[in-house]
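#help-structures
NK: newbie question, is this the right format to request a structure? protein is Prolyl endopeptidase
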Amino acid sequence: MRHLLTAVRRPLLRHRAILQTANYKPQKPQPPPSPPSPPKPPKKPVSFCLHGESWEDEFNWMSQLNDRWRCGTWTCTWSRRRSTPRLSCTTRSASSPSSKRRWPRLAAELSSPPLRWGPWRLASLHEEFISNKSPSAGFDFTSGKKIEQKLLDYNLEAERYGGYAYEELSEVSPDHHYLAYTMYDKDNDYFKLSVRDLNFGSLCSKPQADRVSSIAWAKDGQALLYIVTDDKKRPFRLYCSMLGSNDEDVLLLEEPQENVHLGIRHTKDFRYLTVNAFSTQSSKVFLINAADPLSGMTLVWECEANAHCTIEHHQEYLYLFTDAAAQGQTVDHHYLLRSPVASSCSPRNWENVFANDQELIIEDVDFCDSHMLLIVREGRKYRLYSICLPLSNTKVGVHLKEFNPQNLPLPDHVSQILPGPNYDFYSSIMRFAITSPVMPDAVVDYDLVNGKWIIVQQQNLLYERTRVLYGSASSMSSSQKSSMYTNFCGNNSGDDRPWNDLAEYYACEECDVPSYDGVLVPLTILYSRHRKKNGGSPGLLNGHGAYGEPLDKRWRNELKSLLDRGWVIAYADVRGGGGGGRKWHHDGRRTNKLNSVKDYISCAKFLIEREVVQDTKLAGWGYSAGGLLVASAINFCPDLFRAAVLKVPFLDPTHTLLMPILPLTPDDYEEFGYPGDIEDFRAIREYSPYDNIRKDALYPAILVTSSFNTRFGVWEAAKWVARVREYSVYDPSRPVLLNLTTDIVEENRYLQCKEAAMETAFLIKTVES
């Protein structure tokens, strides 16, 4: 009977539910919950004293890895409690609108374009099917299979190394018989050397070495030279191993001095190996005959410390590319020297290849058997020249124009030109990667004999942008889309080829900003031609300014969302970075480090005063040493910025340089200063972001991201965030967030996407609100 009673009651229940729905009155929306308060880590003051100055560090305990306090969890809490856009990268179905907008910005092809080199057995068997343009390298239309050979199986390597596979170095032997490579041993925190036989896929019994930092083949693949590091990760021993021999590896060189670091490389023709020994006192280069690596090494170059020295060989001449002092006088840029290999003079005589020209700066040099390639900069404009080899002895030492260089085509607004692998020394085709703020990176092959060129790889962003923003792609047929893709992949060549840049949609302007002392600082400004708001645009100012490295101004897909919302993206080439010569670098390091910070502040004020960016909508962005630059600028002018993103930043130079937990190199001390030197110490204390946080000041919203696998300790980010939260005025609309990861973000494409989404959402939320 119970089921009958249930059947009778059901219509009554439905009727009652209808009546309740009809009488329902919607409630007023509840106010959003109050934002969470930031966590407060415990204080454990430790006292320090140096050069008569005393100070305390209440968060020094964070550098003790066995005493971790989870101070980064507030990022997740804040993202959940705040209204959209959320600080998370959610997984969406392929049909969701957000997914459709975001997915085409990721390069669909993860492979680097193949490069032809040497006697590969499968290539010789399928010559007619091999393509240099397809990432798959070739396709056998008879068997229907790709023509490829797996040299290294990461799944097998992960089994060897406890489920984790990370490759640092890999070199194929000149005879293509062996592959030498190093894999990271996470249990011991070093890289381990292995050699694999490519004909059989098996591991060779030797060499097998721990703590390997560099490798180079010799004797046409019969010998492998490698350098190992000490407990402090200093490269200090050079060994030679004969493959197929049972003899012990031979120690060729050992540097007992703690400030000397070793490096090794082979010349492009595999005729010689060069060993660099650099320290805080000098830079030396030794030469080894690759045909007989045990015959000893010869000192061919010696100069002052901190000089860049690279040697190549071409037809019995050694070519040296360096920025060392010339005739006792410091130089501002690199220059090229040459000397006969058979020279018996001591010291060896070197002659200038080109006459000195202050208006024409050689940024880099590359060689093949028939040509020399020069990456040249005239002011801000880059050029790529090729010169026929061998050089005439009567022309050496004259102006570059006397060599009748061929000017290779380049797009507008080039920010950097990088030589490709170019393994095949005897090929006339040379590969370069070209970057620009308004163009996706292009990998280009230049044929130096006939002058033709071809884009072998470049992401198709033009098609994606037309489809999303202007809707024209919906009317395109599949054949038209295929044609567009074919053109973009570079299957055509000639001087009339488009460079597939985005200049039609995004403008790139360059200007010089006077700094506090009158020095002009280059500033590059990027914005959407259709979305920029005159005087009211939000802005993001990028900076780095360290190690003499040029600022990365390449097109970044993750910035497209900001540009299309009317943001201005600016790049400040402050002192300490590259692009302005050696003096530009030296004027922004050690005791001159504050010049970098003041240059950055001057560029920020320029953007606001010229109404390029609205005065309340400027954000800063810095990576690694660039994080120090931006954080220090915020300490000086916290009201100048509305937000900032600091990625794996260097924030506590005082304690890191004074008591390094992670190994530092001479370059680190030459860049940021020696705490033992009183002048350097005072400069460090003045520019250090951690030591100069303002009390009772309103700081901008800040997102700090770091990793337990970074050169700068993760505790630096945690300490700085904790002290900023402690000292500054708390404003829930200006959170100071810390996001920590245990993975290496730079090695994971999807973690990069997730982190970029978080940064973009953070900037939009904090600046546009």
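mod (FA): yep, format's fine, and the tokens are attached above. The radius of gyration is 29 Å.
NK: thank you!
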